[in-house]
Fold this sequence. Notes:
Blueprint: H1 2-39, H2 41-50, E1 53-58, E2 65-66, E3 72-84, H3 93-103, H4 107-115, E4 123-129, H5 131-139, E5 147-157, H6 164-167, E6 169-172, H7 175-181, E7 191-195, H8 196-200, H9 202-205, E8 210-216, E9 222-229, E10 236-239, H10 243-260, E11 265-270, E12 277-283, H11 289-292, H12 297-304, H13 314-317, H14 327-336, E13 346-348, E14 366-368, H15 370-375, H16 379-400, H17 421-429, H18 435-442, H19 452-463, E15 467-469, E16 474-478, E17 484-487, E18 492-495, H20 500-513, E19 531-537, E20 545-552, E21 559-565, H21 571-574, H22 576-592
Amino acid sequence: MIDNQNNGEEYIGRLKPLAAAVIFVIAILIARVGYLQIYDGEYYARMADGNRIRIIPSMAPRGTFYDRNGQLLVTNRPGFSVSLLPLTEPIKPEVVERISKLLNVPIEEIQQKISVHSGFDPIRIRPDVTQDIVTIIEEQKDLYPGVVIEVQPIRNYYLKQEGAHTFGYVSEISDAELETKKEEGYKSGDIIGKFGLERVYDKLIRGENGGEQVEVDVSGKPVQILGKKEPKPGYDLILTIDRDLQVAAEKAVDDMLAQLGRHAAAAVVLDPQTGEVLALVSRPAFDPNLFAHGISTKDWNAINDNPDHPMDNKAITGEYPPGSTFKIVTGVAALATGKVDPYETIFDGGKHWLVPKGNAGDEALGWINFHTALSHSDNVYFYEMGNRLGVDLLESYAKMFGLGSVTGIDLPYESPGLVEWKEYKWDVYHDEFYLSEVMDAAIGQGFNLVTPLQAAMVMGEIAANGKRFKPHLVKQIVTQDKEVVKDFQPELVGELQVEPWVIELVQSGLNDVTKNGTAARNFVGFPYEIAGKTGTAENSQGMDHGWFVGYGPFDNPSISVAVIVEQGGFGASSAVPIGRQIMEAAFALKVQRGEMVAPAKN
């Protein structure tokens, strides 16, 4: 009896530590539950909601581009995009394989997009698909789990390749771009501006994406919409471009290229009194709509393999010897510094007396003054101006005109041209600058390089009595309701530091170019008095380039024009006809819109 009692007490003694351990564990569990319920309750509630609530974004439409008269240039149209939306589980390999075959997109490309994806945003595989693709996916949903059709705004460029280098294009952001733009709010799959105005004003015109807060069940199917944020469209751009003039300028360029059998040219039309760009042409061009819905390999190769480089905006990136159009700068420099008297006559016997350099075709004009030399584009006279000025003065006046520097136009990749010829030769060839090279520079040859935009600006400065305004393509930034966000006013960025009579003499000589000089034959019967200058620039890669610059009407200039035809030969036969057609179109449009009075008929 006593033994049994002792055994019971011993057994109870053994259970006490175990019971204490069990109570301790239970206490810890209760404390942990309390901690999770009270202290971290809100956090885990959010996680639970996160398992059943998804945010499905909605892309904002980009802002519309209008021309200066309110005509549409670039807008959006509805399109269908195929995307992957892994709501509850990763996209299965067999689904990736099916969508690859259906859309003709490599599996590796799809897998790459999946691998860099994070969050719940759709993984966009192919934008702007055809209706038959949409039908297949909608009718065979069981074969395409996680594949969704999004209705998205697709960029629509009304003029196709016309104005392409100005408007630019949009495309999906690349991995490299995303690395530099993450802090600005850009995400994988975003459509961004890659070129032209689309690139420069991307932040303003891209808008703010919206989306839907959707509750889904365990299979990932939407149950109900809990909330919705409408996308906010981007700002609209009202451009300085005149759509009708742009179309006319492009046609004039295309017709001449077809006639000559050439492929590359550029033209710039601007208002010299404001710096507003009225038209800008670069050939060859491309259709930016190809990029908006995902360019095919075939289309990209056709653009990329073209030896004339359609993606180059030759109007602002092409650097060419200016040829005789540079005699405007040389003439201003010689007159302003007193290196020549406007009435002094210089003998042209066909070649210069110091260096055997002469006129085209060995032409000899005899004793000539400044006016005759400029209107007839006499090389020997301007060789002598280069001899008298020297390279330093010539460079100085070229810079006064704004050459050798970018103009600051609101487009990317602008080239500065080349004015520091002496420094360039020393850096590249480690040699001094010789007299013959100064003479070459004086007539726009040698190391002398300008862009077509710069050439138009030089002519514009003469037209505006020495004033240089910053060229720009956007007139206003406005909201969808046409409320003005920003208004761009003319910006004076430079002025020729010369006496008014110097500019007047140059204006008179340029006016005579179209009456009795090198462009007279092309402007017979033209209804307005204008000023102009032809040029033929030597080209080591083939035929000479043809130039024309001009402005008008002569007494009250409203447009300045520059045209270059690559390997077009003499400017009088290749570039001048384009310039005349552009001016005819511009003046006719101004008369039609009541901006200018038509000349009286005799």
